[in-house]
Amino acid sequence: MSTLSDGTYQIHTFFGAIHAILYSCILPNQSLGEYVQLFTLFTALLRASLKDYLRTENEFHTKINLLVCQEPTVAGQSKAIIGFSASAPKNIKERILEDRRSHLQILNEVGHHECPWPVGNCAEDETFAHLQKWRDVFPKQMNQLHGMIAVSLTLDLADMRPCQACRQCRNLMFKLRKQLTMTILDLAPPKTDGGGTKMRSEGNSSTRRSYGTFQGM
Ligand SMILES: [Zn+2]
What we know:
- The protein is an alpha+beta fold.
- It has one domain.
- The protein is built from seven helices and four strands.
- A four-stranded mixed β-sheet has the order 2-1-3-4, with helices on both faces.
- Strand 1 and strand 2 form a beta hairpin.
- The site of zinc ion has 6 residues, from helix 7.
């Protein structure tokens, strides 16, 4: 993939194949609302088609992430990509994590933050690897990254629940904001059933959350 640091992407799993296919299929220059609609519709279709698999995949608990990069003007240009958490048996997961650390080297500076999963496991780690090279894909005016906005939304594939970024991903976003001088937003709402931010679970369901609709942004 041209927007990865070495331009190559190894497909290790079914979800890795979907990531590669969508990379070529998602149209540029749609509104954020259209990308979110496309993402939720696609996630619902994928969830329905993988119903039997998802019923038995408690070990992996796959998450799906949408990353939209947008110029903050009405006619601004935009791009989007969809990625997945590293849902795979241990030996394959190790190879996926190794690839992700190589594509997004700043992951090596992200702390573990006492999460029960390794750095590089999250769906955000697959999509955020494309941010640094998007600067070369967009036209010159887009290279003034001070005005560029990236928006992230993660859903649980099993129930389409929005998942707020975990501590590792928040740390990754903080580092990327500084490195790329851009705004990165997480669309998932904070929990409203107890206040504050609670780290999302990789294996257990928690209170269902809802999120708003996003139109014409
Ligand atoms: Zn995470």
